[in-house]
Each structure stands twice: as C-alpha cells, then as structure tokens.
Structure to design on (1164 residues):
C-alpha cells in the first residue's frame, strides 16, 4: 500500500523523478537556458498581453507562477509555459464578448477565463482523458509544426523590415507585408538581417569551426548556445551607442516593474456561463499546441511525455496564473524551442526562468530599453525555421497516400486558414480516413497451404480450396461502419457459387463485434439458412466469444464455431462426404 | 465504348431495366397497389405537412413529382417516397430556427431545405459516398426513431386537446401542454380521443375479428387499411353536420385546389448557411430510413438495391419536390410496406399513386374542409407509436455496454435536446467509442497449443512458452491512435523479462500500419537493438507487407519476418540453442 501511495504520488509529481538525479552539470545547462529564455520572454510576454487587450505587465505575471507550477506537475523537460499568440488572441475574443477593454471587468474576466481553463484541463487530466491527444497522428503533428513555423517566421519579418503588418495566416501576412514594402526601415533591416545571419551561422557553423580549431566539444557547444545572448548584448549596445532609435529602429523601451499581485477569479455564475465555452475551446487548442510541441521535443531526446499528466500540469499553471494576475497560458511553441535549443534539460530551467523574470522585472529591465525588436525577431525566426521540415511530405507520399493527404491538408489549411483550423482539419481528416478504411475492410477468400494447417488468400498463395466450402477471412473488427458491407459481400459470393454448402467466416482479425454487426451476422445466418447453406465461424477470439455467448446468437446459428480453421475444414469436408455417400 | 455508355446510362436510369418487361399483368398489380396507397396517403400527407408546420396541401405536393422522379431514378421496386414523420419533425425543427411558422418565409425555407437536401443527396450519390450512412449504427437508429416517435406523438397531443403548444423536445412540449390544461377544448378532445381509440382498434383488433368471422384474410387486410380513410370520412361528416367549427374544433379548412405550383428555392447565402447543417442531417436520416426499408423489401423478393443509386433517386425526388411546392421527402416505412403488401411490382405503381394524388389535389380537397385536425393528429399518433420500441435498450444492455451507452445517449438527447442534437450526439458517441476502443487494443502474449501449430493467449489456454522468446499478438490495426500504446506495452514487457532474446510481433489481426505506427515500430526496433533483443514480425498480411516493402523498414529491421508464427518459433528456438551450444 505504501509503495502504491508513493508511486501514485510520484505519478502526479514528476519533479520527484527528475529531481533525484539533479546535479551541477544539469544545473548549469538549465541555468543557461533560463537566462536565454528570460531575455527572450520579457518583451514577448509584454507583446502577447497587449495582443490579448490586457495591461502589458500581465504577460509577465502570466509567466511566473504558471512556469513554476508546470515545472512541478508537468512531464515535458523542455516545455516553456506562458502566454502564446493563439491563446492570447482567443482570450481577446472571449473576454471582449463580456467586458470592455481597459476596464477592471475585462481584467477580471481574463483572470476568470484562466481559472476556468485550468479547472477544465485539470478535470481532463484527473479523468485521464489525455488519450484524446493520440488522435493527432505523427504526420499531422509534423505538418502542423512545419506550417506553424512558417507562419511564426513570416509574422516576425515585419520586425526585421521595421514595418507594421498583421495577419493570422500566411496569405494575410504576406499581403500585409507586401503592402509595406515602401516603408522598410533600412537601418532596422541591416540590424535584423545581420542578427539573423549571425544566429544562423552560430547555430550551423560556429561549433564545427571551433571544434576544428581544437576547442573541446563541450566548450564549443556552450559557445554556440551563448550565441543568442551575445547577439542580444551586441545589438543592444549598438542601438545604444549609435542612438538607433532616432533612426527609426524600434526597441523594447520601458518595461513596467513590480511583483505579481494576488488576484482571484470571479465566481459570478453569469460570467462563468458566458466564458465556459471559450474556456473549453482555449484549453483544447492550448493543450493540442502544448502537447505537440512537448512530444516533438521529447522525441528528439528519446524522452516520453504523459498527456494526462500534461493536462494536470497545464491545469495547475492556468489556475496559478489566475491567482497571480495572469491570463490563459499554455506550452508555447517558440519559447519552448528556444528553451530546448538553449540546452534546458529539466523543468528546473522553467523555475529558473520564472526567477529570472521576477528579477528582471524588478531590476534588469532598464538595461533592455535599447534592445532592438529586430534582434528578438531574428532569434525567433532562427529557432522556428529549424522545425520547418517538408520531408514528411516525401516520406508519406512513398508510404501511404492517406497519411500524405492528412499532412498536406494540415499544412495547407494551417498556412491558408490559421493554426486552429489547420490542426482541426488534420485531425478530422485522419479520423475520417481511418473510419473510411475500416468501413471497406480487406476480406480474403482463403484456402489451405498444401502440407500445413495454414489458410491463406487464394489470390496470393497456391492453396487448396473446395467448391462446397467458402472460407472468408475478414481482416477487420466488425462494427457499424462495415456491417452492411460484410452482408453485401457474402450475399454476392454465395450467389456466384451454386455448389456451396458451407460458409466459414474466419475471424482471427475480428477484435470486436458490435450490436450492428451482430444484427448483420444474424441476418446473414437467416439468409443462408433459407438458401440451404450452413454458416460457421472459426478462430473467434476469446473476448469476442465471451460477448457472443451473452446473447442468443449461438442458439440460432445454423452452423458451428471452430477453434481453428483447419479443424473447421477437416470436420466439414468429412461431414459433406459422409452426407454425399449416404 | 458504346456498350459502356449504354450500361452507364442504365445504371443511372434503372427504369430502362424494369420498363422493358412491363406487361398488362404487372400493370394491373401496380394499379391496384396505387389505389390503396393513394387512399392511405391523402390523410397522411396532410397530417405530416401540419407536423412540419406547413400548409396541409404541401404534403400532397411533396408526394407527386418526387414519387415520379424516384420511379425513374430509384432502384427499389416497392419504395414509396413522400413526406414521413421523422423528416417532417426535423423539417419543423430546422425551418423553425430561421422563420416564423405561418409566414411565406417559413414556406420558402422548407422548399429551400428540400432543394439543399436534394443537392446533397445527389452529390453523395454521384461521388458514390453512400457508405457515410453506415456511421449511423443500428442501435443509434433504433434509439433515434423511438425517441422521435415519442416527440411526434407528444407534439400531436395539442391537436387532440384543442390547445396551442410548441417545443422541439419532450420537456418543452410537456411544459407547454401543462400550461394549457385549463384551455382544453372538450369537443375537440372527444373527437380526437375517439379517433385515436378507433384507429388503434382498427390496427390491432379489426383484422383478427373479421378473420374470425370468416372474412378472407386479403379482404380483412384491405378493410383494416381503409380504417384511417373511414375515420377521416366519419369525423369530417360529424364536424360538418354539427358545425363543430363553431364549438372551437379546428378543421383543415380551405385547401387550394389545383396542380402543384411551380416554386423555386431561395438562393440567399445566409439562408443556405443556416440550413445546410440541417439539410445534411435530414438527408442522412432520410437516406438511412429509406434504404433500410428498401433493403428489407428487396430481400423479401431476392432483389437488390444499389445504395449509391438510391441517393440519386432520393436526391432527384427532393429537388423535384422543391420545384413543385414540396418539402423534404424520403422513402417512408408504412407507405412502402402498404405498397409492397398491396402487390406493387415496379416503380410504376408509384407513378400511378402520383396520378391519384394529383386527381385528389384537383378534385377532392373541398371535401376535406371540415376534416378536424384532431383526426389527423390521431392518424399520426397511431402511426408513430408503432415506431416506439425500447427493446433495443434491453438488447444492448445484455450484449454491449458501449452500444447501450450510444443508444441511451441518443434517446435521452433526442427527447431532451431535440432531434438534430440527439442524432448528432448518437453518431459522435458511436465514433468516439470506436476510436477509444481501437486506441487501447487488445493484445495477448501467446504460446503454442501443445501438439498443434497454433498459438493462443497464455491467459486463456494451456500453452507452451519459452522465456527467451516473447510473442505478442496485437488484435487491431496499428495506427496513430494506438501507436504510442503499443510502444509502451512492449517496453514494459521487455523490461520485465531479463532473459529475453527475441520479441515476435504476431500480426494476423493487423490490417493496416499507418505512418505513425511505422514510426513507432522503427522506434521499438531501435530500442530493442540497444537492449540486444531481436525484433521479428510474423503472419503479416499481404497488403501490409506490400506497404512495408515500399519504405526502408526492412533494411533496418533487427530481426526477421516469418510467414507463420510456428515457423518463427521453430527457427528462433533452433538458432538460440545453436548459439548457446557454441
């Protein structure tokens, strides 16, 4: 009992797992990542809060306690929780329905939304409904991440070019950018392009160069990972030294300072009723985004994440955000990638980030006054472009046209219609394709492989058959989607074989027979009985037999059930020949 | 080429098939059936139009051109197309959302709904998508029809009581009716209750009574079927003779005399957007009802119907209805059974019925002025209560809790939330349950049944196993929803068996391996290789092998692929022992 209690405790507190092996090397890596992420998060958090229609500092508040709670309850080693673009937009839409932007009611509604979203996520996690995330197939995730990377990178181009542009999908963004070509600020562009090129080179070229010059791999690695920090420091210095703000280069500017306040969600039933639908939607989209990022990053290091525990982690993060002046958060795409690339090894990196943000918001923010926004955009572009990978298209094209269709639709819909529609369409198409396939199951007429007890497809193997006995192997569970198809196929086959005395349905691949399929089997049994043909089953699985025994199917069955196909054919041939001899 | 053209032509025009052999005997049978069906249809069509909230004559219009078009394009020989109870109820629910009953907009919306439904059905038929109807499982259909029957019967109580009440679900209807208890018109109630009782008695008691008194079964049958017409005639006469309209008994009133009018659907994008979802639901429900009636009747005469061509027939019927003042129609159960029992041999019987209704529309409608609406309500109540059948609950409870859950949710949601939500929830739950099940597939560790070449579950059979070889039989296709689960199970099993040298994945039930599952198999292969365990496959199906050969899986595979499980164990035991002996 004690062991069980401890293991349950550990399941809900993954920190007990990774916390045990924590050492100085891991600490150094986590701390470095935390510094880099902190620097990136300050302006990003402010920007997302403004996108949600909230006071800028709420973006920082939403990054502190949520990160710590996720570090304790979450399972991903690299996921960075906080405000993200899609969730910020959805927050603006949901809260805008119940309150006026700029009022205290608006802030309270956003806090309440975070609370409701947290309750919903926690509920899904405690009821272990994380399996829902499995319906995101690998190709759909790959397509979604690739397309999202392109959209995020494109959305950052405006900062590199020093123009204003907006849009939630690729088309809107490109149209908006092209409209601004005349307004490009060339000083900003030089800073942005140089930062981007430097970051690409640091990522791809610096480590091999240092290694070739005799620097130890570990040192080369740290140098490469410090690249973004160096670029931030250098461009900030340049912007300060040459007063680039006077040349139209937009910098981060003044960041409000202060500790997160203690806040409480509203418990007004009316407000809950108006927000609960949006909270569910935000939770699901946020979870899907978070879990796809977490799964991708975990797979790169052969780690695993537990979707149910992720729900608990994200639920706690959102509830924590609601208590400390935040708004809905989830595992963010770009911040997690930066965290991962910067070398974060455990969720402690997140906790250090939270501390960093707390310190930064109290003491360090004035130093970032001159940080060019183009530099931050360059960091994000370089990070997300590494996730853009179209090889999934080639791979699925060769292996499975259905998967290819799912990934293509996901990419096109995400690029053309936005991330939410894109991922929804990808999932829906995967599920539909799966259902369509199982509604037209593969069926094979089988015969005996000479000299063995094996029965294989007559079209693929040289096998022995008997024109009085038809054996049909159904290669799928029988359920509502394919029950009618089975009936049709059997009637057609029986009509074409006048000498037929026995039909054997060989069921080694039938894992389930639902009520609809049971009714179809009863109909087939009746029809064959009228035609003077016996209907048998062979190789029925244990669980399926158990279920069939619960109803009166066997009392009506106009034939037998055989443990093995060989036994079935053996018995029926003998019976048929005995009958013929009489 | 010419032959192909002709055969394609014949496929889309089944009339060319049966029309060729038409002779005087068939004509006489068809004509007799048409007379009986016409007599039955007149009151029924009026009643269903009122149920849909439409002017009574639209029920007749909806029975004329649609019947003729179905006769040309449909494949069932006995199906009678026209307004039916469930579709009329769904029409009322859909159109009631966009327009006020009694307005011209309401009528236009109903006509537009028929048009959209026709376009959708035709599209499904031309693209051969009839399989979509299979996603309505038998229990969901049974539950939906039962719940709809209860709602329809309850909705007609207001006519029996002579009060006004409304609502699209049971609760709304009951609340509305109870609120009107003080307003009951007792004259109406007497007429309505007497008509209901008489119709029940005619349906259940008349035929046995007549047969017992020596009347021939065929005549007794015709007498029983004429019951509704007699009740209509008698109550109409009473209402006229005693001027019951002056006592508050609502009658059908003036029905315009004449040919069905030419009408056109609205092409307003807003109206289309509001109706398209309902049109899809109505089409699918109508198609499923129609096709199951058609298949039942076809089976009785060893005929077959083609579901995709049925879609075309019903699509044309609905578009025809939209052009001639009708509303959504489908193949009705009771009218088709009457048509079949009355001896209809070809779809020409339907055309003759259409002519009969045309005559009625031209000449008989003035006679129906005094027909009490309570009588029509009684007709509907008696007809739909035969659809109410709760035995599906008992049957599914015994057989499968998943099906029981689906049917319970369908019934409760239909009663409590209305027809559209009810059927949608039933279908969604069926699909979710199916997906959930296949995401946690049944897997069995198997061993050799002594003295045979068969391998069965170690938990269910007394089998021979070897602690160096683990054979896992997966009883499901491998795809995105269960790929991760498979990985987890294999890693757990391998971790618990230190002596293990070989893992065999036995695949007789694996009908598909999608891209996600392929990536999981590659991951399993890599992981086992690191652990010094070989990974083998056995009994892989032909189509699955074909697909795996298309990618480089086999070049990485750290083991072999065996045709049979027996061969796998035989080979691996020999290899392992040879290695141990060295």
């Amino acid at each position: 009992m004690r062991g069980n209690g401890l293991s349950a405790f550990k399941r809900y507190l993954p920190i007990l797992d990774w916390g045990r092996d924590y050492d100085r090397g891991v600490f150094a890596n986590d701390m470095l990542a935390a510094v880099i992420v902190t620097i990136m998060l300050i302006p990003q958090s402010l920007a997302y809060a403004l996108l949600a229609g909230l006071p800028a500092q709420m973006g920082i508040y939403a990054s502190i306690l949520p990160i710590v709670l996720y570090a304790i309850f979450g399972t991903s080693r690299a996921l960075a929780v906080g405000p993200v673009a899609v969730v910020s937009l959805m927050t603006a839409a949901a809260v805008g329905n119940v309150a006026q932007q700029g009022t205290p009611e608006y802030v309270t509604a956003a806090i309440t939304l975070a609370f409701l979203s947290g309750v919903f996520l926690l509920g899904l996690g405690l009821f272990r409904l994380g399996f829902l995330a499995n319906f995101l197939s690998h190709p759909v995730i790959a397509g979604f991440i690739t397309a999202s990377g392109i959209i995020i990178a494109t959305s950052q181009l405006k900062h590199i070019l020093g123009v204003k542009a907006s849009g939630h999908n690729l088309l809107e963004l490109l149209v908006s950018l092209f409209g601004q070509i005349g307004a490009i600020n060339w000083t900003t562009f030089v800073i942005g392009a140089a930062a981007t090129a430097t970051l690409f080179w640091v990522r791809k070229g610096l480590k091999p160069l240092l290694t070739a010059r005799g620097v130890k791999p570990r040192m080369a690695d740290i140098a490469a990972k410090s690249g973004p920090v160096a670029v931030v420091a250098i461009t900030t210095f340049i912007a300060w030294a040459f007063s680039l703000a006077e040349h139209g280069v937009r910098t981060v500017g003044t960041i409000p300072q202060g500790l997160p306040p203690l806040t409480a969600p509203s418990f007004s039933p009316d407000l809950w009723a108006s927000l609960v639908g949006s909270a569910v939607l935000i939770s699901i989209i946020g979870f899907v985004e978070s879990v796809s990022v977490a799964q991708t990053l975990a797979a790169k290091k052969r780690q695993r994440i537990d979707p149910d525990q992720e729900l608990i982690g994200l639920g706690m993060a959102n509830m924590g955000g609601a208590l400390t002046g935040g708004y809905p958060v989830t595992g963010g795409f770009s911040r997690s990638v930066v965290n991962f690339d910067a070398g974060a090894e455990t969720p402690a990196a997140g906790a250090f980030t939270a501390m960093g943000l707390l310190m930064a918001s109290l003491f360090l923010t004035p130093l970032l006054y001159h940080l060019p926004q183009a530099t931050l955009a360059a960091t994000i572009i370089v990070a997300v472009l590494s996730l853009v990978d179209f090889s999934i298209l080639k791979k699925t094209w060769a292996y499975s046209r259905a998967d290819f269709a799912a990934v293509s639709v996901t990419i096109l819909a995400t690029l053309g219609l936005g991330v939410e529609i894109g991922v929804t369409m990808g999932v829906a198409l995967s599920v539909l394709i799966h259902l369509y396939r199982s509604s037209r199951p593969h069926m094979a007429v089988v015969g005996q492989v000479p000299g063995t007890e094996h029965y294989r497809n007559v079209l693929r193997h040289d096998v022995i058959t008997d024109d009085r006995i038809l054996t049909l192997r159904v290669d799928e569970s029988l359920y509502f989607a394919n029950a009618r198809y089975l009936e049709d196929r059997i009637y057609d086959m029986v009509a074409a074989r006048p000498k037929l005395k026995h039909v054997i349905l060989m069921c080694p691949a039938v894992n389930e027979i639902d009520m609809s399929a049971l009714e179809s089997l009863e109909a087939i049994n009746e029809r064959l009985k009228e035609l003077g043909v016996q209907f048998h089953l062979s190789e029925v699985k244990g669980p399926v037999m158990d279920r069939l025994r619960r109803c009166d199917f066997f009392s009506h069955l106009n034939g037998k059930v055989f443990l093995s196909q060989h036994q079935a054919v053996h018995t029926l041939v003998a019976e048929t020949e005995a009958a013929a001899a009489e």
About this structure: The longest helix of chain B spans residues 269-300.
